[in-house]
């Protein structure tokens, strides 16, 4: 038997099946992406018909006022909802991991609700809620309602990611900090936060992406002038698809990939701290 | 003189578990004080209450005369060396050690030079820029020590600081810790479950079991005059001969033999005589030069172990086996398995302990 690092290497037919499966999975993942990218450069108005290489759709994308406006809306909403949900989600994670309080179990269960319930249900809930609130407080739908809705589901995702990180952290480190004259806040600021930072950054990235992506909920709670990019794209499809959609999608894809690369890079920098310390000097870590 | 730490009637409950049960303790300034007991007896909990990481359920806790009851840990003049060091993994050695001073508001330059001095004190010069993960267990232990000492605490708490080290390093560190403590003149409260470590290092020892304090005393007092069977058995090796008190000067062993043992216990009290293996002597029974029968028992040798500097004899009595340890003296007679012998002791070397 050939065993490498405790893993048995499959042989014969099994091996070929596994290999074929791997390629099949890759195919599922990447074939649509490849097609999308290729046809975003197609000169034919009909999606899926090759009409020679062109950059027209990207030019359209850059000059189309509607697309630009939708993109601006999307980014504003994503930034605002990410900032708020990272703060609240991290606080919720800390409360659940570090303290015992009355109603903790209920809070724990409720926090996961937005992850489990279908988008449509959530959307209807939000719509109803804002309809009631609008009557009471007299505000209109738009930036505020979309951002609040995105915060509502993003808190759950952020707290799940941050909790996973917190659970892996030795809580005696905080006690050690407290023993060394740190107040609760200082212990959090100088010990807990730096150690859960990769989780917080990951949660922020996830929240940003989810906000940028959301169609269903946004469509229910959006108001005049606050069409987001995915909602706009969705609307375009109904009017008839042009490769402009492909170009928009490619840009969004590149943006997501850039965000992932950025988060990986920041974590790499943190991981490489030792080497930096050894060369530059011990200036990181301390206030 | 005010005590460094004064604990009066302190108990700590976690739900139904009584981790610490009504203890009284006084630790003097400049003392090396050991908390000794088996796993789960409440040593860490006691230490955590002094540090302020847990608060007593009932009782009073004073540090240098000030009631600290529910004062948070950052307001207490004590520092802790944690059981698994709890070094900050994202900071290098220098920043770990400077942390306490920085939190107290010392400026960066002063904190760094004090930290550098403390790192020198524990002989880790040149390691300032390493991360905890890049250090050996022994080096991490020293960083934890420096990180606590740099704050010049009035009491240093150490929770099994040597538990994770191998034997040789452990013995080396025992000596270093002890001389460091003498040099600094600070009280050390040292938690351990290793009785030998407690005996060699401490000025005084408190023996705990199941949350209760059984005995406090100097190593000699604890070793020579254990208050009960548990302490006698836990500290060093001993032979426990069960019996009942007959009068103020005699104890009747379970086989009916009467031996001399002074006590002020009432007749009929069940006790055990604790006789350390090295305090008993072994004699051939047929020599006629047998010792005084008032402090001797008869038996038969069942095993002899040669230790180089000593010989250990296992002797079978009618109702149990005991051990006798003698220095390897060429002038002394040798014993073989099966020899009928008498085991004797000086009555003052036998400690009467409560039989529980
Ligand atoms: N936070 C807690 N919640 C519940 N029970 C606890 C808690 N901390 C300690 N205990 C219990 O209190 C008792 C004493 O624990 P403690 O940690 O003080 O023991 P210890 O003497 O330090 O043991 P060891 O030598 O194993 O470290 C144990 O029975 C333990 O299970
Ligand atoms: Mg312990």
Describe the fold and architecture:
The complex is a heterodimer of chains A (287) and B (356). Chain A is mostly helical and 287 residues long. Chain A is globular, with a radius of gyration of 24 Å. In chain A, strands 1-2 form a two-stranded antiparallel sheet. Chain A has 13 helices and two strands. Chain A has a domain at 65-240: Orthogonal Bundle (MetI-like fold). By secondary structure, chain B is an alpha+beta fold. Chain B is built from eight helices and 20 strands. In chain B, strand 17 and strand 18 (321-327) form a beta hairpin. Chain A binds chain B through residues 170, 172-173, 175-183, 186, 190-191, 194-195, 273-274, 277-278, 281-282, 284-287, and chain B through 51-53, 72-74, 78-80, 82, 84, 86-92, 94-95, 98-100, 102-104, 108, 128-131, 134, 147-148, 151. Bound molecules: adenosine-5'-triphosphate and magnesium ion. Adenosine-5'-triphosphate is lined by residues 14, 17, 19, 37, 39-45, 193 of chain B.
Quick gist of this model?
By secondary structure, chain A is mainly alpha-helical. Chain A has 13 helices and 2 strands. A two-stranded antiparallel sheet of chain A has the order 1-2.
Tags for this entry?
heterodimer, A: 287 residues, MetI-like fold, two-stranded antiparallel sheet, globular, disordered N terminus, disordered C terminus, B: 356 residues, alpha+beta, six-stranded mixed β-sheet, five-stranded antiparallel β-sheet, 24% helix, binds adenosine-5'-triphosphate
Mean pLDDT of chain B: 91
* Number of helical segments with 4 or more residues of chain B: 8
**How much helix is in the residues of chain B?**
10-25%
Could you name the CATH homologous superfamily of one domain in chain A?
MetI-like
Strand order of the largest sheet of chain B: 6-7-8-3-9-10
Low-confidence stretches of chain B: none
CATH architecture of one domain in chain A: Orthogonal Bundle
Bound molecules: adenosine-5'-triphosphate, magnesium ion
The computed structural class of chain B is: alpha+beta
Oligomer: heterodimer
Largest pleated sheet of chain A? 2 strands, antiparallel
- Biggest sheet strand line-up of chain A: 1-2
C-alpha termini separation of chain B: 36 Å
Biggest sheet architecture of chain B = 6 strands, mixed
Total beta strand runs of chain A = 2
CATH uppermost class of one domain in chain A: Mainly Alpha
Anisotropy-based shape of chain B: elongated
Poorly predicted runs of 5 or more residues of chain A: 1-5, 271-287
Order of SSEs of chain A: EEHHHHHHHHHHHHH
The helix content of chain A is over 70%
The tally of beta strands of chain B, per DSSP, is: 20
């Amino acid at each position: 038997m050939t065993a490498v690092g405790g893993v048995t290497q499959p042989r014969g037919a099994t091996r070929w099946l596994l290999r074929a499966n791997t390629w099949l999975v890759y195919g599922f993942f990447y074939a649509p992406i490849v097609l999308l990218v290729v046809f975003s450069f197609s000169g034919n108005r009909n999606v899926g018909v090759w009409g020679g290489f062109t950059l027209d759709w990207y030019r359209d994308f850059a000059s189309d006022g509607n697309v630009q406006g939708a993109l601006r809306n999307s980014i504003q909403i994503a930034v605002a909802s990410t900032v708020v949900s990272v703060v609240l989600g991290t606080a919720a994670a800390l409360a659940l991991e570090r303290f015992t309080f009355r109603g903790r179990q209920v809070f724990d269960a409720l926090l996961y609700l937005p992850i489990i319930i279908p988008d449509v249900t959530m959307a209807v809930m939000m719509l109803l809620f804002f309809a009631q609130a609008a009557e009471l407080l007299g505000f209109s739908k738009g930036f505020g309602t979309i951002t609040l809705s995105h915060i509502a589901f993003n808190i759950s995702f952020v707290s799940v990611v941050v909790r996973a990180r917190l659970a892996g952290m030795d809580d005696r480190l905080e006690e050690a900090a407290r023993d060394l004259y740190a107040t609760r806040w200082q212990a959090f600021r100088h010990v807990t936060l730096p150690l859960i930072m990769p989780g917080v950054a990951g949660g922020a990235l996830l929240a940003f992406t989810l906000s940028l992506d959301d169609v269903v909920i946004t469509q229910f709670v959006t108001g005049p002038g606050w069409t987001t990019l995915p909602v706009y794209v969705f609307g375009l499809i109904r009017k008839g698809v042009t490769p402009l959609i492909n170009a928009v999608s490619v840009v969004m894809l590149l943006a997501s990939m850039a965000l992932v690369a950025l988060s990986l890079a920041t974590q790499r920098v943190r991981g490489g701290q030792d080497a930096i310390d050894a060369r530059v000097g011990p200036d990181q870590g301390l206030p | 003189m005010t005590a460094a730490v004064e604990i009066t009637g302190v108990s700590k409950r976690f739900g139904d578990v009584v981790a610490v049960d009504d203890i009284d303790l006084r630790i003097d300034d400049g003392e090396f004080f050991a908390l000794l007991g088996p796993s789960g007896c409440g040593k860490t909990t006691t230490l955590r209450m002094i540090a302020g990481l847990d608060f007593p359920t009932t009782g009073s806790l004073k540090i240098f005369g000030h009631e600290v009851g529910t004062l948070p840990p950052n307001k207490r003049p004590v520092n802790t060396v944690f059981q698994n060091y709890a070094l900050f993994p994202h900071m290098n050695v220098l920043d770990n050690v400077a942390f306490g001073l920085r939190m107290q508001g010392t400026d960066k330059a002063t904190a760094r030079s004090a930290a550098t001095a403390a790192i020198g004190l524990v002989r880790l010069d040149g390691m300032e820029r390493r991360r905890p993960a890049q250090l050996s267990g022994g080096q991490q232990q020293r960083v934890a020590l420096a990180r606590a000492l740099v704050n010049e605490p009035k009491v240093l708490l150490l929770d099994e600081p040597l538990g994770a080290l191998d034997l040789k390093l452990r013995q080396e560190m025992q000596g270093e810790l002890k001389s460091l403590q003498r040099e600094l003149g600070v009280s050390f409260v040292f938690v351990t479950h290793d009785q030998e470590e407690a005996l060699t290092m401490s000025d005084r020892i408190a023996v705990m079991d199941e949350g209760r304090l059984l005995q406090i005393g100097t190593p000699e007092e604890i070793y020579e005059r254990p208050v009960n069977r548990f302490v006698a058995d836990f500290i060093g090796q001993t032979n426990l001969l069960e019996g009942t008190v007959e009068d103020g000067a005699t104890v009747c062993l379970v086989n009916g033999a009467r031996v001399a043992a002074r006590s002020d216990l009432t007749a009929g009290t069940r006790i055990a005589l604790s006789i350390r293996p090295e305090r008993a002597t072994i004699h051939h029974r047929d020599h006629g030069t047998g010792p005084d029968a008032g402090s001797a028992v008869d038996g038969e040798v069942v095993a002899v172990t040669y230790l180089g500097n000593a010989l250990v004899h296992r002797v079978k009595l009618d109702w149990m086996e005991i051990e006798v340890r003698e220095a390897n003296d060429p002038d002394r007679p040798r014993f073989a398995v099966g020899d009928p012998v008498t085991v004797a002791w000086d009555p003052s070397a036998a400690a009467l302990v409560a039989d529980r």
